[in-house]
Every structure is written in C-alpha cells, then in structure tokens.
Specification:
The complex is a heterodimer of chains A (172) and B (254). Chain A is mostly helical and 172 residues long. Among the domains of chain A are: 16-49; 82-138. Helices cover 68% and strands 4% of the residues of chain A. In chain A, helix 3 packs across helix 4. With 254 residues, chain B is of the alpha+beta class. Chain B has five helices and 16 strands. In chain B, the strands form four sheets. In chain B, strands 8-9-10-12-11 form a five-stranded mixed β-barrel. A four-stranded mixed sheet of chain B has the order 1-6-7-3, with no helix packed on it. Classes of the chains: A mainly alpha (172), B alpha+beta (254). The A-B interface holds A 64, 66-91, 94, 97, 100-101, 104 and B 31, 45-52, 54-56, 59, 61, 70, 72, 76, 78, 89-93, 141, 147-148, 165-166, 184-185, 188-190, 195, 198-210, 217-219. Chain B: Its main location: cytoplasm. Chain B: Keywords: Cytoplasm, Exosome, Nucleus, RNA-binding, rRNA processing.
Chain lengths: 172, 254
C-alpha cells in the first residue's frame, strides 16, 4: 500500500535523538576540551616566558611610602615674584605684566573685579526696577481677578468713550 | 674633613635641627625630629618638601650645600646659601646671552656649567617658516624646561599656553650687571624693602634673572649707571646704610 520509508516507532526515534544529542554533546565537549587545553597550553607557555624569559636576577626592590618630595627650584620655596619689573610707569607693558604674573597683586585685581561686578549688579537692579515700574499696570491687569479685570476694562472703555470724537454735523 | 665635621656635628644633630641653624654639606637632615621644629607641629607626617640644598639619598636626606636651614609652613625645608655660581633648576627664569646659532637651536650662556639650548620654535608665534629674530649676543629672558644634572639644560621663551608673558629677547639700551644669587632672591622676595627703595628712585625698568644677572634700564645713561651701581653696592650694605645712600641719591648729591 504504502511506498516509502517505514514509519519509525517511538523508542527508536528517542534512541536516534539521544544518539544525536550525545554526538553533538560529545563533539561540543571535545571542542571545548580542545579550546581549554589550548588555552592552558598558551598560559603555560606565557608563564614560562614571563617567569624565565624576563627574569632579572636582582634583589627585590621594596616600594616604600615616599614621605619626601624634592623641589630643585627656590622659587616656590621663597615665593619669589616674577623677575620683570618697571617703576613709575617707565614701561607700562611690563607694569601690566607684573600685575598678571605676581599672584598677590592678582588677588587685589580680583577684588577690584569683584567690586566692579557688584557695582554692575547694583546698576542692573535699578534698571530692573525702572523697567518694572512701567510694567506695573500690565502686571496688575494680569494678576487681577476676573471681576476686577472687567472693571478695569470698563474703566478703560469709559475713558475711551468719553474721549471718543463724535461726528458733528455742520450747521447749514 | 667632611666626615670629621659630620662627627663633630653629630652631637648637635642628636638634639634635633633648628630652623635658622647652619648646615654643612654631608650633614644629615632628620625629618623625624619634627617636635623640635616649631612651625611643623601642626603638620601631619605626610610628605615633606625638600627644597634646594637638601638631597635625598636612599631613605635619608642629606645636606648638599652649606647655609642656613629655612622652613616654610607647613612642611617645606631648604637651605639658604650665599653663592655666585648658578645651578639650573626647572621652572626658574634666567637672563641668558645667545652665544651661537646652530641649526634649529640657539646656545645660550646662563652662567651655569654648561650652555643651555633654546629651540627657535619655543618663541611666541614662531613656526618653522616664521623664525624669531634672534642674533648672537642678544639677551633673552627664558625659563628652564629641562634642568637636571645628567642632561643639557633646555630653555623656552613661552609658557605652557604658548604665551611669551615677558619672556623672549629684550635689552636694547640697558645695562646688564652680575650680582650674587642671594641678592636677586632678596630683590624678588615678596614685600622686599630693597625693591621698594629702588622703585622710588627713577622711572626705570629691571629684569632679574635667578642666575644672578640683572638688567637695568632708565630714561638716561646716567640714571641707568647709578641704578646698576646702587644694585651692586646693595650686596654689602646694611639696611640703614642703604637708606642713607638712597636718600643722598634722591637729593642728587651723588
């Protein structure tokens, strides 16, 4: 009746599957084993190289905590100033440079700068106040409640109507 | 004789070092003797900074120049000595004389044991095409970039950001004199009375190299000469003598 492969019974399928799995596993393990051994071999090789290849026959150097720092220059010790100076405005360029290079005078300059900044902020505050003075009415309108706002509007309208020019018919 | 000296001073050493004490080469500097140092009481036992004159050798610190022990809070120690011979140190600004041009470096005499090299590229705005105009015999104010006992010292005329900031060729119409290293340090010390006295005389300009060279320029040759002579005589004058002399100069009697 049927031409073709004979259906394989269950257990046989299982067996087949199992065999396949073991095969795969075996192969996998083999490969893994291979890689591992390879790695181990490599490590061994490396250790041999690192241990024997580059070994210096010297007494062990102990790294102690370094408590002493050496400074060859006297400039930071004595806080010496920059070596270009000009007196009584003989060379204004150098006098500018002195202020930049000598840290003490630099701080003074910083203070001056701070004062200047403070002054500037004072001015801007005044400016802000002046600016907001002109904005008071619009801000008032903004923060007013609905009824109040309506009242304000009415006021404005009344003003407008009162000042509104009306066409006057010319007399004959 | 150094050994005998060391032995002779060993009794002193055992009592501890005092700031301001005379030290001789070969003496041992004890960092442990901190309780005897007045100002270091607040300092923790962290790194001590050994300035010029103190040399580390193994785990000891030895004195390598004769002078007075100085200390700055919290933990900086150095030996203050009188000397005329300059030993290059990294970061110090010196006055050099260009003595030779060889290829891309200038050889600069800074008064040290060896000529220092100064690359033509280490000037502000210098490029391979745009060489700085430096002639043999020019004075340069330069900073040490490399200075150690085993290598040729190297100068630069720019800071880390490539700015000159006063470094470079200078010195037209002035006079350069040689003074001791100690006098230059006294002049450059913050709040120096000597500098204040000098600044009150004439409108003038000075360049002070830590190698003991001082360049002076004033509005006339006479004034320049007076200033340079005063500078050189300041070496040996006491503050009172100096004030008297400067007073006379101001009055124009000298």
């Amino acid at each position: 009746m049927r031409n073709g492969p004979v259906p394989v019974p269950g257990p046989v399928i299982g067996d087949h599957w199992c065999r396949g799995l073991t095969l795969v596993l075996f192969q996998f393990m083999q490969r893994g084993l291979d890689a591992e051994t390879k790695k181990q071999l490599e490590e061994d090789e490396r250790r041999i190289i690192s241990d024997e290849h580059w070994y210096l026959d010297l007494p062990e150097l102990k790294t102690k905590e370094n408590l002493i720092a050496e400074e060859k220059s006297i400039v930071p010790c004595e806080d010496l100033r920059y070596g270009r100076v000009s007196f009584m405005g003989f060379n204004p360029e150098v006098e500018k440079l002195m202020a930049v290079m000598n840290p003490k005078e630099e701080t003074e300059e910083d203070e001056e700068e701070e004062d200047f900044r403070k002054m500037q902020t004072d001015v801007t505050d005044e400016d802000m106040a002046l600016r907001y003075e002109s904005l008071v009415s619009s801000m008032k309108k903004k923060f007013a409640k609905k009824r109040e706002r309506a009242a304000i509007d009415e006021d404005l309208n009344q003003n407008v109507t009162s000042t509104k020019r009306v066409f006057l018919k010319p007399q004959d | 004789s150094t050994q005998t000296r060391a032995l002779k001073y060993s009794s002193l050493r055992s009592t501890g070092l005092r700031v301001g004490q005379v030290l001789l080469p070969g003496d041992q500097f004890f960092c442990e003797a901190e309780e005897t140092l007045s100002l270091s009481a607040t300092a923790r036992r962290d790194t001590a900074v050994c300035g010029p004159g103190l040399r580390r050798s193994g785990d000891r610190v030895l004195v390598c120049v004769g002078g007075l022990l100085r200390h700055k809070a919290p933990n900086v120690f150095w030996v203050q000595s009188h000397s005329k011979r300059y030993v290059p140190a990294k970061g110090e600004c010196v006055i050099g004389i260009v003595t030779a041009k060889s290829g891309d470096v200038f050889k600069v005499d800074v008064g040290a044991s060896e000529l220092a090299s100064l690359s033509y590229l280490s000037f502000e705005g210098a490029t391979k095409r745009n060489r700085p105009n430096v002639q043999v015999g020019d004075l340069v104010y330069a900073q040490f970039l490399v200075a150690n006992k085993d290598m040729e010292p190297e100068l630069v005329c720019i800071d880390g950001a490539g700015r000159a900031n006063g470094l470079g060729v200078f010195g037209s119409g002035g006079l350069m004199v040689k003074v001791s290293l100690g006098l230059v340090r006294r002049l450059l010390a913050p709040g120096s009375e000597l500098m204040a006295d000098l600044s009150g005389l004439f409108p003038s300009e000075m360049v002070l190299g830590l190698n003991g060279r001082v360049w002076v320029k004033s509005s006339s040759v006479q004034q320049t000469l007076i200033l340079s002579n005063l500078l050189q005589s300041c070496e040996t004058l006491s503050p009172d003598q100096r004030r008297a002399l400067f007073h006379r100069v101001k009055q124009g009697t000298l």
